[in-house]
Amino acid sequence: MRFSRNKTKAGRPVIAILLLVGLVTGLTGCGSDVINIVGSNTVTPLSAVWAEEFMDMHLEANIAVSGPGSGAGIAALINGTTDICQASRTIRPTEIEQAQANGVEPYEIQVAIDALSVVVHPDNPVSELTFAQLSAIYTGQITNWNEVGGDDAEIVAIARDTNSGTHVFFKEHVVQMQGLPTEDTSLEYGGDVLMLPSTEEGVDQVADNPGTIFYPGLGYVTDEIKLIAVKRTADSTAVLPSIETALDGTYPIARPLLFYTNGEPTGVIKDFIDYCLSSEGQAKVLEVGYVPLP
Amino acid sequence: MLEKTSPTTAELGQVLRRRWRLGEKLIESWIFLAGVLTIVVLLGIIALLIKEGLPAFWHTPPWEFFFGTKWYPVSEPPTFGIMPFFVATLWVTLVATAISVPIGVACAAYLSEVAPAKVRETVKPIIEILAGIPSVVMGFIGLMLLSPLVQSTFNLNTGLCGLTAGIMLSLMSLPIIISVSEDALRAVPDDFREASYALGATKWETIRHVCIPGALSGITAAIMLGVGRAIGETMTVLMVAGGALAVPVSPTDPMMPMTAAIASGIGNAVRGGLQYQALFAIGLILFILTLAVNLIADRVLERQKRKFAR
């Protein structure tokens, strides 16, 4: 072949990159006091701050945090590839069965509370929405902002991808309206909903694009996006997400942020979780923008 | 003295030759092993894809899997239909090919036939650097620069769509297409060009009717490599294609190509679970798709060779 030389040339950097990646992941995997935390993208900013503080206090400890999503974290827990799974939804019965089949006993610890905030572009005049409206927007029944009291503009509904606990939590509690008389578990996200791989990307999109709506955790809310007050039904009062409204239980889309370990934590993992639950650890929760445990 | 040395030289030569033969044997077997290894790895990958992916068809019949339009892997019960991903991959690849082939072949023709040597020597390495830009960086560029531009130009609701992804992919397959096509064009013997000029053809006519047909097999290989890159690229499409689950009817719809579907679901999939199997089945289909592209390329190359052998 005349061109075979070029093909091998193109392949060489790929192999080098693969080797490098293998080396780096191999290196981070070894060492004695390493704690791996994998899971929710929502919990990641909080875990990262806790990990930094804890590593400052315990120089021998080394904590690696990654946030592909709650589902991914729970899968890692089941597969035994992580020490702590951080999750923004509770583990499902089917997942507990799978874990037990693999010899893993999921142990749940609540570490903070999150208010899932519905956000839009600052120029959007809409300021409150009911669960039924949100559900209709995310299932694709309402496609124009003027149907919910806004301008005549197409709605671009943004969600997280299926790796995310937020995706599942929002689907069960808002799209399917769990616990309301109108609950319908057959409802799914509509085909036009954008499924984005990270919360940051969703927040950036909302800040740039006037037609968008998204639901980041309270910790991701910036000044460039506008919070929507949410009400369960048309008759109830609309509540803005905040630390106060999440704590007193009036904000309807608040949820626990959780750590899962294999059995009750011991050793350095226990020390770390004890720190997270301590008054200093809970003070950090406020700083990151979530709600500390009562 | 002379009589004494010449046998020694002969002996020495024999020893050297034997040693060389041994060295050659070693290198030969090393190359052989390397060749076998690639085949073993390839067979291993195929076996793994089949072993993990085929069971997906026990719970979802193949026709439902291929033609189903609903992908809800985390629902109870889950449904797996990959039509939206398949169509999305087709759209994105189509856009990428439609943009990169004309530009790429024209650029290769310029570099090989028109550009002075100095320009070629400077431009070609720069193009090859373009091939080394990591796909996640291309994703960022698409997100920050291209998607707002696409949104305002085409008056769309969102710039995250198949068109944006296709344009970014075309930028990524351009260097391959240019580099390989240019080599192919340069491999066309100068006799051909001289004969063409001697017949009174202009430069354009020579490029159009002599050089490009002469290098067509190489250009086809280049295009296929570019298409392969576009089909298999993951990070960029994950970031900029939008990730909507409906079957895209136009390239300006947000969509989720097959690679993005695998990437955005695999972290969440429990080993051996239904979603895991379904994602491997998508991988198997991607593999078959790229295999088909390569087979078609081979067929074209073969036909081209026969045509020229006449």
Helices, strands, pairings?
The complex is a heterodimer of chains A (294) and B (310).
Chain A: H1 4-29, E1 34-39, H2 44-57, E2 62-66, H3 70-79, E3 84-87, H4 93-101, E4 106-115, E5 119-120, E6 128-130, H5 131-139, E7 156-160, H6 165-175, E8 194-196, H7 199-208, E9 212-214, E10 226-227, E11 229-231, H8 243-247, E12 254-262, H9 267-277, H10 279-288
Chain B: H1 2-53, H2 56-59, H3 62-67, E1 71-72, E2 79-80, H4 83-114, H5 117-130, H6 135-153, H7 162-186, H8 190-198, H9 203-214, H10 216-232, H11 235-240, H12 258-266, H13 274-309
Helix pairs in contact in B: 1-13, 4-7, 4-10, 4-12, 5-7, 6-7, 7-10, 8-9, 10-13, 12-13
Compact summary:
The complex is a heterodimer of chains A (294) and B (310). Chain A is α/β, with parallel strands linked by helices and 294 residues long. Chain A has helices at residues 4-29, 44-57, 70-79, 93-101, 131-139, 165-175, 199-208, 243-247, 267-277, 279-288; strands at residues 34-39, 62-66, 84-87, 106-115, 119-120, 128-130, 156-160, 194-196, 212-214, 226-227, 229-231, 254-262.
Describe it.
The complex is a heterodimer of chains A (294) and B (310). Chain A is α/β, with parallel strands linked by helices. Chain A has helices at 4-29, 44-57, 70-79, 93-101, 131-139, 165-175, 199-208, 243-247, 267-277, 279-288, and strands at 34-39, 62-66, 84-87, 106-115, 119-120, 128-130, 156-160, 194-196, 212-214, 226-227, 229-231, 254-262. A 5-stranded mixed beta sheet of chain A has the order 2-1-3-12-4. The longest helix of chain A is centred in the N-terminal third of the chain and has 26 residues, at 4-29. Chain A is globular. With 310 residues, chain B is an all-alpha fold. In chain B, 78% of the residues lie in helices and 1% in strands. Chain B has 13 helices and 2 strands; from the N terminus they run H-H-H-E-E-H-H-H-H-H-H-H-H-H-H. In chain B, strand 1 (71-72) and strand 2 form a beta hairpin. In chain B, helix 1 packs across helix 13, helix 6 (135-153) crosses helix 7 and helix 12 runs antiparallel to helix 13. The longest helix of chain B has 52 residues, at 2-53. Chain B is globular, with a radius of gyration of 26 Å. In chain B, 39% of the residues are buried. The interface between A and B is large, with 39 and 46 residues.
